[in-house]
Design a protein that fits this description.
The protein is mainly α. Helix content is about 50%, strand content about 5%. A hairpin with a 2-residue loop joins strand 6 and strand 7 (about 465-470).
Length: about 700
């Protein structure tokens, strides 16, 4: 007994959970084909598990290597198949509307069979992995373990290949389900139905933001469309169903069965649209017959019959026979007394082309459904439970003392004046009398409540940092400022008069002074230009050769004139320049190297010859001149030779370090790439 009760309560809780859940079929993951499925799982196993094993390893390590591959493959299959089985909705767990819709569109048995086959495949793969892991524990060599692993993975792949058709079918179902509209079966809904081409989609386009295709032929709408609208600050969904033909249930096609499913299972107000103009291709009699044939589907649902296309044909223009048929539908529309809203005899009419009466039909449907939902809630058990928990407090007099409402005397006076016919002048009237808005400034002080009304318009003191600003203002400040400005004007006028009387301070220059001033300015401009030229060149100009000085301006005469013009004695500078530019001694060369050596020997055989790197590089003509030049800084020929030897010695260390000179600061590469990169061949491991 306890077990049965527990199972019943669990089922009840499950049903409530399913009715409250939201269905989003767009989140179902893609179902791959069988070959893609196999490639994905095997490549993942190859990437995520070790790949190197040798026959020299311990047999336990080899077994573990192949067991890990089998287990990992089985886990991958299990995860992916479980994901597919969890994503697809179970027909028994979803709302009956979706359950029947799946049955109409995809055949419930085929759908269940495909999911059941995948569930079986998952269990079989788990069993294969378990069996082969057990066999691998007793593998006695690398070859045997490898063959067992191949057999295990091969059998798993074979099982999935056998279910290729189920995977392809489920992928098609997933694509169709993702295109299904997101219909909430439990929310407030308006269900529009009727014969094809009577104006259902046009009505939905007018009352919602949906854009359903409208064409002048039957079965334009082939599936259920959803639009949303607002009424009384609530969200409503409007369902546009495909057209229904008047024929037996087993002869209706898939498009019509979607409408039948929606009519049977959705808690909505049903709006049955009748085409009064008969432009849809069906007479009013046929439309009435269809209405009565599907009438059992309207049971326990609020129903509204709306007459459409009144812009083509008026309700008054109908024949007596057609009018009686419409009256019969209107009688069927009557519901319980609690659901009747005022004048229930009035048949709602509209024209979706001119939008006449469309909003009235929508409002009537919404009001009817709200009344029906309230009635359902009151009829259920939950309403009684809620009412039992509520307590409405009613006030009770505490004594017999009268406590009338207090009415201010000013209010009574204004009421009396108004009753006497006196017009009360408002602030808006004052504004209109005094220039209107933007010109009139309202008097805010007249309502001040002060002990003395004469105080209302007194000047208020400005307080800054706790002190009255008026205490620090000089009342005679304007007069003092005017006096100060007058004194300044008098002083300016006096100074101007004295300036005109004063004699000029400096005399005009004579011709000689003007000429001297011109020379000074020219010299100054020349110095400035020279300085700028040197600055622009970075003080790095080479010495100008003689051949460039074509006009012979750069000579000792111009230098002497320039120095003397600056008041300097140029004698020493001229003498030094002339001594530097003295012509070289002419020494005749011998006809051969032997003669030259004889001449050198004759000149002085006891003198030492300079044997340095620089002396060797000199030409024969220049080597003759070994006497130090004046101003070179050497006392004798020997001192010069010692200096050259010291320079050569200092350069030796830099030569060993491959330096160009003492100014060479370049840092060579510590590890050349061609010596320290790449694989080393045989016999190249010694790096010394």
């Amino acid at each position: 007994g306890r077990g049965c009760r527990a199972r019943a309560s669990a089922t009840h809780a499950n049903t409530h959970a399913t009715h409250d859940m939201q269905y989003n079929f767009k989140k179902i993951a893609t179902v791959p084909t069988a070959t893609d499925f196999i490639d994905v799982v095997l490549s993942r196993t190859q990437r995520q598990t070790p790949t190197v094993v040798h026959a020299g390893y311990a047999i336990t390590r080899i077994r573990q290597f192949y067991m890990r591959k089998v287990k990992y493959t089985q886990t991958s299959w299990n995860e992916k198949l479980s994901r597919i089985l969890e994503d697809f909705p179970r027909v028994d767990d979803v709302h009956p509307f979706y359950s029947d819709l799946l049955n109409v569109l995809y055949d419930k048995d085929h759908y269940k069979l495909a999911l059941g086959q995948l569930n079986t495949a998952r269990n079989m793969i788990d069993k294969i992995a378990k069996d082969y892991v057990k066999l691998l524990k007793y593998g006695d060599s690398l070859y045997r373990c490898k063959q067992l692993k191949r057999a295990a993975l091969g059998r798993m792949c074979t099982i999935m290949k056998k279910h290729a058709a189920s995977l392809a079918y489920l992928e098609q179902v997933r694509q169709h389900m993702s295109r299904l509209p997101s219909i909430d079966p439990n929310t407030r809904s308006i269900l529009v139905c009727g014969y094809p081409n009577v104006g259902k989609s046009s009505f939905m386009n007018k009352v919602t933001r949906a854009d359903v295709e409208v064409q002048p032929y039957a079965f334009t709408t082939k599936s259920i469309y959803v639009g949303h609208t607002d009424y009384k600050y609530l969200r409503w969904q409007v369902l546009d169903t495909p057209g229904i033909l008047d024929r037996p249930l087993d002869e209706r096609n898939t498009i019509e069965m979607q409408s039948i499913t929606a009519l049977a299972h959705l808690r909505a107000v049903v709006l049955y649209i009748v085409d009064i103009s008969e432009q849809c291709g069906f007479t009013i009699a046929q439309q009435a017959t269809l209405f009565h044939s599907i009438k059992p589907l309207f049971a326990n649902k609020p129903l509204v019959v709306a007459v459409n296309k009144i812009d083509v044909r008026k309700l008054e223009d109908l024949s007596a026979e057609d009018r009686s048929l419409i009256d019969g539908m209107r009688e069927a529309m009557r519901g319980p007394a609690s659901m009747q809203l005022g004048d229930d005899d009035a048949l709602p009419t509209m024209s979706t082309l001119s939008e006449t009466g469309v909003m009235e039909v929508k409002n009537r449907c919404c009001d009817l459904l709200l009344a029906h939902r309230v009635e359902q809630k009151l009829a259920g058990r939950r309403a009684g439970e809620v009412m039992n928990r509520l307590h409405v407090a009613m006030p009770v007099p505490r004594d017999s003392k009268k406590r009338p409402a207090f009415v201010p005397s000013t209010l009574e006076e204004s009421r009396a004046r108004k009753a006497a016919g006196e017009k009360i002048t408002t602030e808006k009237d004052l504004q209109e009398q005094n220039g209107g808005a933007g010109v009139y400034s309202a008097d805010l002080r007249k309502r001040y409540l002060l002990d003395d009304d004469d105080w209302k318009y007194d000047i208020m003191p400005e307080i800054y940092n706790g002190k009255n600003v008026a205490d620090f203002i000089d009342p005679e400040i304007e007069a003092k400022l005017a006096e100060l400005e007058r004194e300044e004007d008098e002083l300016e006028a006096q100074w101007e008069a004295e300036r005109m009387d004063r004699a000029p301070m400096e005399e005009e220059l004579d011709d000689d002074e003007k000429a001297l001033l011109g020379e000074v300015r020219a010299r100054r401009n020349k110095l400035v230009a020279e300085h700028r030229r040197k600055k622009a060149a970075g003080n790095n100009n080479p010495v100008v050769p003689r051949k460039v000085d074509a006009q012979r301006k750069l000579n000792t005469k111009s230098m002497k004139a320039g120095l003397e013009s600056m008041g300097l004695d140029a004698t020493a500078a001229v003498e030094r320049a002339r001594s530097r530019s003295a012509s070289r001694r002419v020494v005749k060369r011998g006809r051969s190297t032997g003669d030259a050596s004889m001449n050198d020997g004759d000149a002085g055989g006891d003198e030492k010859k300079m044997r340095t790197s620089k002396s060797r590089s000199k030409s024969v003509a220049r080597r003759v001149k070994d006497v130090p030049e004046p101003g070179a800084g050497f006392a004798s020929k020997d001192a010069k030779m010692r200096a050259i030897k010291m320079a050569d010695k200092a350069q030796r260390k830099r030569n060993k370090l491959a330096k160009a000179g003492e100014g060479d600061r370049s840092i060579q590469t510590a590890m050349p790439k061609h010596l320290f990169s790449g694989k080393r061949g045989n016999g190249k491991t010694d790096r010394r």
